[in-house]
Amino acid sequence: GAKVTLKVNGRILRRDVKGTQSFGGSNTHAIHFGLGAIDQAEKLTVQWPDGQVQVVGTVDADQFIDVYKEL
């Protein structure tokens, strides 16, 4: 699956997005980064399974963001 990294105050946080784990099953592709009192992350980056890297950029806290693979 995709690897998502978030740079916050110079630290790198990472989450892996996994696809379906069984036949006919499904998992949410939502991930969560807890930022505590921090208002903004410096950079959100997604590395897709095919190796393509997509940089979303600066992200404000307390929101949902949909990221789709660029074609």
Descriptive keywords:
71 residues; mainly beta; four-stranded antiparallel beta sheet; 4 strands; 0% helix
Q: What does it look like?
A:
The protein is 0% helix and 39% strand. With 71 residues, it is mainly β. The chain has a four-stranded antiparallel sheet with strand order 2-1-3-4, with no helix packed on it. The chain is globular, with a radius of gyration of 13 Å.
Q: Can you describe this structure in just a few lines?
A:
The protein is mainly beta.
Number of strands: 4
Structural class: mainly beta
Give the averaged pLDDT, no decimals: 90
Please estimate the helix content: under 10%
Q: Report strand order across the widest sheet.
A: 2-1-3-4
Order of helices and strands: EEEE
Q: Major β-sheet, in short?
A: 4 strands, antiparallel
Strand content: 35-45%
End-to-end distance: 17 Å
Low confidence ranges = none
**Tertiary shape:** globular
Write down the Rg: 13 Å
Q: Count of helical segments? A: 0
Give the SSE layout.
Layout: E1 3-8, E2 11-16, E3 40-47, E4 53-60
Antiparallel strand pairs: 1-2, 1-3, 3-4
